[in-house]
Amino acid sequence: PGAAAMTVAADGRSATIDASGKTVGSTTITAHIKGAPDTAQYKASCTVTVVTIGSVSVSPGNYTIYTLAEPRTVQLTATVTPNAAPVWSSSNPAAATVNQTGLVTAVAPGNTTVTATVGGKSGSSTITVKDKIPVTSVTVSGTNSLVRTSDKTTVTTQLAATVKPDNAHFKAVSWAKTGGSASININASGLVTATAAGSATFTATADGVTSTPYTVTVTDQKVTGITISGENSVLVGSALSLTANVAPSTALNRDVTWSIVSGSDYASVSSVGAVSAKAFGNVTIRASANDGSGKFAEKNILVSTAAGSEISWGGKTWWLADSNGSDYGGNAGSVVLLQRGNVAYRRFAANSRNWEGSEIQQYLNDTFYEELGSYKSKLAVHKGLGGNNRVWLPSTGEIYGASGRPAYVGSGPGELRQLQIFNMAGQTYSNYSYIKTVFNGINSWTRSPYLNAYGNIGVCIVRKDTGQITQGYCYNTDVSPRAAIILNP
Asked: Which intervals hold domain BIG2 (predicted)?
């Protein structure tokens, strides 16, 4: 049992009939126009069935809607058994309202119970109203270290913001710079642009929640290494151009400063690596990076002079005997020096025919070598003699000149040319054949001023392959030699 309202209309006029159910069953209600004939034209009828409602349920049973974001409404459905139309109501219309189709609309944050009622039975749904799903956290990620290079002086990186929870309503992000270098900035989409080295701090904000500050650091590509290319020697009065090879090629500042580390009395160097040779000696030149990396390279250069020239080096006086010391075992740019003046009398040894281990060999590579002090580090081992032979004997007293006659060493380069007999096989000096004839084809030798019983000068020849003396009278005789050295740059 329940109530029902019916409307009867005729000739533009209407009347309402309220029917209340008293017991289960059906009845027909007829409306007739008063005073009109009793015909179908002037009357209408309606059958009203009265039933008992078994149950009413509403779905969904609970739901959340929002005032500032979607969903702002929810459509409830009432299931009535047997089927009947319910009446809808909200317990808290200040939070949400409901119309008679079951559509609930959010009004203000709060809670309400929406009820569907029919035939004394009802069902309900709990509705929660909020203004939004709020953001709880914002996290910034992305590359935080940038490097400027020579081919890319402006660098960029894209920052990203992760907003939680995933279903937050207002996840739009705004970016802000909170401090740091003026040359590092961020745009509205989170793109960081840097035009100089430094650091800057940025934040991302969504729905009033701001991230932890995120720092981006920008550095300039530093020099990692330098090498110097150019000749290892230069003649007095000449110039030499050096080049600093800077690595990597993308270093932002590849400029270098040139300086003399040692030997400024012998040469100078310009700001572009041009070396001007002033006097014979060893020079160490440095190229230092200007970018603050602390990287540098050094090159040793020998300022040399013409063959036959007299020079001072290591506290002793020498002739420059050969400008191609690499033929004897020296580095590129090395020279051969012949001492101008004899060393103290020494001999090979009584009844000994070997250079290696002889008294004179030990003296030259021990006492004489040590007398050179800090200069000795520049000496090369003679490649024909090997071992520790940094000081050796091209001649023990005099040397053959270009004339082919014995002569004491003079100042002319022709008189020094005999040194070239120490070259390895294949050398092509013009007097090579003559010297081979004089020394029986042996490629390495020593001479002595010792006069034998016939008044002839004895010749002590030391074979390069065995180191053995093969001829002469000097193996057990004191000799006064002139020392020779190979001087590296």
From this structure: 52-128, 134-216, 222-298
